[in-house]
Structures are given as structure tokens and as C-alpha cells.
Write a structure and sequence with these properties.
Elements lengths: L21 H6 L30 E14 L2 E13 L4 E9 L2 H14 L2 E2 L11 E5 L2 E7 L6 E2 L2 H7 L7 E5 L5 H13 L8 H18 L1
Parallel strand pairs: 7-8
Antiparallel strand pairs: 1-2, 2-3, 3-4, 5-6, 6-8
């Protein structure tokens, strides 16, 4: 037998198994317990994100505070995040949460905001009527405005209203400057919005008109 056709000697590891050459190892296919081939390039479904799909809600981080709690070993530092989400129509929500770092705090606050979503009534591109809401120490006044006015409001109110479909609004913060309380007051004010058809004055006027019409027919 010529020397060219001689097989390469088998190399055995210390454990007694055959040592695989690089060429064989690159072509070898890994299989699972059931014997099915495993595709190394395949990614998990829960880790595949479709970035091309539009997001239904936009989120804005209004404020991040560093808070501390005194424990036996010293001070425990954490972060508190205030996040608002909205769909630029008539859905909006606010969430507040704490976390060990900024990323986890924002993620928790966003999840809470999604759970606390509200749907409010609008009159075109403004709110239905004037409302003044007190939440703890915060006192927020909001008024409807004519088209072209824009959003005349402070930082927190502007951030929340900017994620809704309201384009014209006049607002004034009269009480505490605590951002969390102001955010809750704005949400409560939007929740109290009642369409014009359901106003008590409108119902009374309609009832008086019907009563006068009946008298005339008699």
C-alpha cells in the first residue's frame, strides 16, 4: 500500500475518547436529547423584537429622584421614576415606581402606567370644560382654549398633555410643586371631563323646552 493512502493515526484523549480534528468538529451537527438537530443560529422567540412595528403608546420620563432609606447597615440608595405614556389621542396613564437603578425604576414605572391607563372625553382638540383638581397639596386649574392657542402649561402638565390629542389648553398650577402630585391632579382632571351632551345645564334647558312646547300645544 502506498504511503499516500495511509490513514492518519487516531489521537486519544486522557479520558480515553477520540480527539476530533478541527475539520470534523466544524462539520459536526449538534443534536438534542430527542436526536433532532439544533440550529445554533436560531434565536429565542421572546428575544426577537420587531423594531419595524409602530408603537401604540409613547412614553416620557418626567422625573427621576434619588431616594434613601436608613437601615441597620447604613443608608440604602434607590431611584424613583415618574413616567407618563399616551397614544396622542384620548388615552393616557401615569406611573411611579422605585428601583435599584434608573433602568429598572423606569421599566417598573412604565408597567404601572400601562395598568393605570384612562380614557377621557375631548371637545375637538381641547378639553370639554374648565376643571380645578386638588391632589394632596397640588392644585391644578385647566381651561379649554380656542384653536391656535396651543398648550399653555408648566413642565409636568405640558409633558402629560403632549402625549394626548389635546392641542389647545390653558393651565395653571396653584398649589404644591411636587411633580408626582401635579401629575395625579392632571390625570384626575382629565378623568372628570364630561361631554357637552351630558352637562346638567344642557339637560335642564332641554327639559324646559319640552315642557314649554307641551304647554303651547295644550
Amino acid at each position: 500500500m502506498p504511503e499516500n493512502t495511509k490513514k492518519a493515526p487516531k489521537v486519544i484523549n486522557k479520558s480515553g475518547t477520540l480527539k476530533m480534528s478541527d475539520e470534523v468538529a466544524s462539520k459536526k451537527q449538534t443534536r438534542d436529547i430527542s436526536g433532532r438537530p439544533m440550529d445554533r443560529g436560531r434565536r429565542r422567540r421572546d428575544r426577537v423584537r420587531d423594531n419595524g412595528a409602530p408603537k401604540e403608546f409613547d412614553e416620557v420620563t418626567i422625573n427621576i429622584d434619588r431616594v434613601s432609606r436608613t437601615v441597620k447597615g447604613g443608608r440604602r440608595m434607590r431611584f424613583k421614576a415618574l413616567v407618563v405614556i399616551g397614544n396622542h389621542k384620548n388615552k393616557v396613564g401615569v406611573g411611579v415606581a422605585k428601583g435599584g437603578d434608573v433602568t429598572s425604576a423606569v421599566a417598573k414605572a412604565t408597567a404601572k402606567a400601562k395598568k393605570n391607563l384612562i380614557t377621557f372625553n375631548m371637545d375637538g382638540e381641547t378639553i370639554c370644560h374648565e376643571v380645578e383638581v386638588k391632589a394632596t397639596g397640588a392644585d391644578v386649574l385647566m381651561k379649554p382654549a380656542a384653536p391656535g392657542t396651543g398648550i399653555i402649561a408648566g413642565g409636568v402638565v405640558r409633558s402629560i398633555i403632549g402625549l394626548t390629542g389635546v392641542k389647545n389648553l390653558i393651565s395653571k398650577s396653584l398649589g404644591s410643586t411636587n411633580k408626582v402630585n401635579i401629575a395625579y391632579a392632571v390625570i384626575e382632571g382629565l378623568k372628570q371631563q364630561t361631554p357637552r351632551a351630558e352637562w346638567e345645564t344642557t339637560k335642564v334647558k332641554g327639559a324646559t323646552k319640552k315642557a314649554s312646547a307641551k304647554k303651547e300645544t295644550k
